[in-house]
Amino acid sequence: MKKIAVLRLSSLGDVAMTVPVIDSLARKYNDLNFVIVTSKRCEGIFYDLPDNVDVHAVHLHGKHSGFKGLRRLSSELRSKGVDTVADLHDVLRTKVLRKLLLLHGCKVKHIDKGRSEKRALVRHTASGFRQLKSNFERYAEVFRKLGLRFEIDFERLDLPAGTYAIRKPEGEKWIGIAPFAAHRGKIYSLRKMKEVIGALVYRYPDCKIMMFGTEKEMHSLRKHYDFDQLTYVCDQFSGVWNELRVIDQLDVMISMDSANMHLASLVQTPVVSIWGATHPYAGFYGYGQDPDNAIQHDLDCRPCSIFGDKKCEYGDYHCIREIAPTTIVKKVAEFIEKAE
């Protein structure tokens, strides 16, 4: 075993969760090489890992689409000398890809997603409602099946000082807000988020609030959020590599159960996370984040989904709609005042 292909094609948050595991592995086994097979959008997450970590970007809607494209991807990985496969995704594409590599003699192991435990969690059985194994441990188990013995001892990404495009002025307070998520059941009311921002700028008039999201997402906010303290990060930077350098300078990040919670965790930025249809018990909480900073409204119907993609049974998303803006502001204030 000399070169391990690590398969996690998407999504950004799940890919970010591989970093603590891969960094811990790469530092312990510096005689091995790790090839991260992921989407072009995600590759910047791995640029600051040890030198024995490389990224092979996939183009699932281009040259790597369909069976023919996966055969091409298999050939590319074999030409790099890959002899082992750790599938951290276990979806149709990675199942096909790992089978192709297995047929060419690669050793292959894949993740156990704990599907039965997660089904029990959303069914609200007495024994099922409990903290499940984290995805970090599930990822680590794949490598242990390959015979690699290690513990996850990651602390944070080491971002070189000369790579920051902007620097926070001394004494200034920066608050990050990532108000969107992939599914409706994980998104806090944008109207109530405006109340949160209003309360924060009233309380800290000299603060800067950094808004994270795509250009399309930010377009929907610009005409409603008219605070002078707002900076839309997408106007100044593109790519996760640049975003990480902004997140690293925040005093605190407000995030949904989404990718930005995990990006902030990679640079030890505290996150006030807002939870609706999903629940931290499912194993997707941010690495090293304090569970007390998860804001959630306890209901008998929560969680109703592992990923937040299930339509609300009652049609009102009461679980996230009823979280008061003052609750969020109070929690954020703890970090701002601690930094003063």
Topology of helices and strands:
Blueprint: E1 3-7, H1 12-16, H2 19-28, E2 33-39, E3 53-58, H3 66-79, E4 84-87, H4 92-103, E5 107-110, H5 115-123, H6 135-145, E6 174-178, H7 190-203, E7 208-211, H8 215-222, E8 230-232, H9 233-236, H10 240-247, E9 252-256, H11 259-266, E10 271-275, E11 294-296, H12 318-321, H13 325-339
Parallel strand pairs: 1-2, 1-4, 2-3, 4-5, 6-7, 6-9, 7-8, 9-10, 10-11
Walk me through this protein's architecture:
One of its GO terms (cellular component) is cytosol. InterPro entries: Glyco_trans_9, LPS_LOS_Heptosyltrfase. Keywords: Glycosyltransferase, Transferase. It holds the Pfam family Glyco_transf_9. GO terms for molecular function: ADP-heptose-lipopolysaccharide heptosyltransferase activity. The longest helix is centred in the last third of the chain and has 15 residues. The protein has two domains: 143 residues, 3-Layer(aba) Sandwich (Rossmann fold), CATH 3.40.50.2000; 170 residues, Rossmann fold. Helix 3 packs across helix 4. The chain is built from 13 helices and eleven strands. It has a six-stranded parallel beta sheet, sandwiched between helices. It has a five-stranded parallel beta sheet with strand order 3-2-1-4-5, with helices on both faces. With 340 residues, it is α/β, with parallel strands linked by helices. Strand 6, helix 7 and strand 7 form a beta-alpha-beta unit. It is globular and about 60 Å long.
